[in-house]
Structures are given as structure tokens and as C-alpha cells.
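Researcher: I'm preparing a figure for a lab meeting and need a structural model of a single chain. I don't have an experimental structure, so a prediction will have to do for now. The sequence is pasted below. Please return the structure as C-alpha cells so I can convert it later.
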Amino acid sequence: MSYNLEDLRRCASSEGVNLIPFPDLQSAATSISDRVERAKGDMRSLGDMDPYIAQKNNVLSELKQYRENIERENRDSFPRKEVIDKNTEEIRKSEAKLRELNAILGNALDLSAAFYTARAMLREQFSSALSQLSDLSSNPERTLGSNPSDDDKKKLEEYIKEIRNRIEKGERDHKDEEDNITKNRDKVRAALDKSQ
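Model: Understood. Here is the structure written out cell by cell.
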């Protein structure tokens, strides 16, 4: 397919998926970008996981204490049933709270995996665009036809360079966000796996 200089000029002054001058690739990237935004919204609606992680650590600590209270009471010559029953009830409540917290953390883990996957897929679309831009740069006749003027060749290279620079900056931003997602996901996974 051929692209004219005006298409490339318009893309060179755009942002995001509109930087991609190749219609099929831009269409796929737009669809994936929508997925990224939905996943980002889902993550945002969950909020910060640190309070849930802290709550889980507190609940695990309380559970340990209740169990130790029961063990200590059972070692006593005259164990008090009411003390054992009270701690047993507290264990039941804490275990219910633990299940709730694990469900929240598990949901966050699933959503961050979806967010990461969508981000990575979008980055791949931009990488494909860079590859096609290199091909376009090597074969200017695809855009300019045969025997293009030096001025048109120069404009073509300027537009390609501008698009490439903007995409590469966007890729770095995406990679930083993917790294951040991974870091948070690992923290949530570690909290979810923690059982004592």
C-alpha cells in the first residue's frame, strides 16, 4: 500500500496510536490501546494495594497470637474453656477476613496481569510500526512514486524521523510502566502467597 507525504506529515504531528501511518497496524493498535485504557481503569478502581497487604500482615499476626493463646492455655494444668472458645472464635473471624483480603489481592493480581499483557501487546504494535518505517525509508518510492524530487525525499525522511522519535519515546514510557506493573504485581503476589 502506498502512503502519501500528507499522511506521514499528519502522523508526525500526532501522539499515541495516531503516530502509526499504516492503517491496518493503526487499527490493531487502537483496539489494543482501548484494552490498555480499560485495564488501567480497572487497576485505578482497585486503588493502592499497600493497605490490603498491611491488613493481611496484621491478620496473620493476630492469627498467630490467637493460636499461641490456645496452645498456652492447653498446656496449663487447668485449661479454661472460655479462653479457648474466645480465641477459637477470633481465629474464625480472622480467617474469614483473610479470605476476603486474599480475594482482593487475587483480583488485583489478575487485573495487573491483563494490564501488563495489553501494554506489552501495544508496545509490539509500535515495534512493528518502527520496522515498517525503516522499510519505508529504504523504499521511498512506495510513498513518493518513481523518480521523487530531492525535496520530497527530504520531507519523507523528516516525517519518518519525527514519527520514529515519538514512537521510541512512547516505547520507553510503556516499558517503564510495564516495569512498574511488574514490581507491583510481584509485591501483591508475595503478599498473596504469604500464609504466616
